[in-house]
Design a protein that fits this description.
Strand content: 15-25%
Number of helices: 5
CATH topology: Conserved hypothetical protein from pyrococcus furiosus pfu- 392566-001, ParB domain
Distance between the termini: 35 Å
Order of helices and strands: HEEEHEEHEHH
CATH architecture: Alpha-Beta Complex
Helix content: 40-55%
Radius of gyration: 15 Å
Largest sheet: 6 strands, mixed
């Protein structure tokens, strides 16, 4: 039986509130961002996405919507990049949504990688190799 990892710190919000370079665009409000404007993070720590659980999440999204907004950074006027929430993004595509609720943050590459890593380590199912590769990438930056 797999051992459950203890949670790290107090979550992604701790990093976001401490780091001066990471700011919420405008207020802390949730924006509806069209899916076609969103690009995945090429340095996403999670490498494997189980199609079965993605479909279950898509079914849930069809039934009750996206409960937890994803977190994005603005890359240009019409392009955003995922910091946290790629599974929700992929499931929303499967569910046929045209937009998704999101927080838009300002973050450089290093901040984005830190937030993505923290978000994924706190969740289950990130395997040891994905964690190691993510740490390696963070160290190399």
């Amino acid at each position: 039986m797999a051992q459950k990892r203890p949670p790290l710190g107090r979550g992604l919000d701790v990093l976001l509130s401490i780091d001066e370079e990471v700011k919420t665009e405008g207020s802390s409000s949730i924006n509806e961002i069209e899916l076609w404007k969103i690009a995945v993070n090429p340095n996403q720590p999670r490498r494997e996405f189980d199609e079965g659980t993605l479909q279950e999440l898509a079914d849930s999204i069809v039934e009750i919507g996206v409960i937890q907004p994803i977190t994005l950074r603005k890359v240009s006027d019409d392009e955003y990049q995922i910091i946290a929430g790629e599974r929700r993004y992929r499931a929303s595509q499967k569910a046929g949504l045209s937009a998704i609720p999101a927080y838009v943050r300002t973050a450089d590459d290093e901040n984005m990688m830190e937030m993505a890593l923290i978000e994924n380590i706190q969740r289950e199912d990130l395997n040891a190799m994905e964690i190691a590769l993510a740490y390696q990438h963070l160290i190399e930056q």
